[in-house]
Amino acid sequence: MSTILDEMNQAPMTALHRRLARSAGLGIFLDGYDIMIIGAVLLLLKPLWHLDAHAVGWLGSAALAGAFAGALIGGRIADRFGRKAIYLIDLITFFLAALLCASAWNITSLVVFRFLLGVGIGADYPLSATYMAEFMPTVKRGGVITWTFGLWTAGAIFAGLVGFTLVHLGPWAWRLMFLVGAAPALLVVWLRRSLPESPRWYLRRGQVEKATQVLQQLVPGLSDSQVSTILAAQVQTIHTPPVPVRVLFGRRFLRATLFVCLPWFVMDLVGYYVTIYIPQILGHLGFHGSSSKLLGSMILSASFLIGYIPLALLVDQIGRVWPQILGFIGGGVGLGIVGLTALESPTKAVIHGGTVEQVAMFSTAAIVIMFAGMLISQILNSFGPGNTTYLLASEVYPTDVRATGHGFATAFSRLGAVASTFFLPMVEQHIGTPVLMLWLAGGSILGGVLTWFLRVETTCQPLLQE
Q1: What pTM did the predictor assign?
Q2: I want to staple 330 with a disulfide (CB 3.0 to 4.6 A). Which of 52, 222, 266, 380 is the partner?
């Protein structure tokens, strides 16, 4: 006799599956927008508020630091009180914080409000990933989560379009950029208002009848006799005691925890710098004027689709591990091309602020080669760790600690993101963009090595329940 989990693992995609994916995906879209819009905002605020590298670092990393706290808190609450418990609260936090960002009056207030926005973003990561993983059929799970998480990039592209459109309106346009991110959050709250609780979570609480009711919503074609048979089989299932949080760091799951944490940390350390600060990086690589920098940023963000679409189509066939390895190593090669080309370009001495500085003189060919290297890095990152790290963290743990585990991995990765956005702008000032690109290239290749040695393949495997 089949159980509720058997039916869920083998179920066809239904309207409820698609609604779940849309509600999660639109939240992720907003994550991408609000994380990335800060790059365009800084183009206006940096001269307006006379921001130095430290202030830029604070603004760039504030939301990511908030995401660290939100992921830890949100994941634990979701495991203890249910996935629905804060699935609306995190978006409401998101909405209110975006409004506050638009009303900020100085650097301190904006950093605080960006931190609060990050709390909402961080809580949504483990919630959306766990929610989708626990509802989706086994053979479709990887593809659906990848398609959905790809909306982060759509949000990032939209942020570039908004920045490109509004940046010419005047120095006050940065407030509009934040308001644009607030409006769609209300739509996501409406979509999520009546979503059901996860049957897997109900089952671990012994609430079999509630789990069966959700199954009937998920697979509406089940007859009364089939439901009765499934219910009888489920009641006979032997349940083990709840899994404690410390299991994440015990013998059974330590390898999995290292596997989902360390490569994701590396991905964020490398990826967030070359994503959030794309306009500034392009300025250091020969692009001049806000329009050309924002246009280049949009092209690089859109190139993510070239790697993301094949991965979403193939991830349930080729697995998660090999794309992640290829993405890390290929991305490192792309960044290496940027760094080496920049180092080989001639320089000239200029006087800036009373001191003599060596400024690179990039030829058109050098600029094209460096931009191509950035494209390679973006495309291969999207085919691998830019998506697989999020997916894998939702698949390696049992139901009792799935959201907590994903939240911990998200929080750990955000340490890399905070280091990337806060410290690397200051590091770049001392060592220069070319050398920093080479450092990041080495870090990306290290991510591929870590993935290989720690690998845990989850493709087409049922989720662990206990």
Answers
A1: 0.87
A2: 380
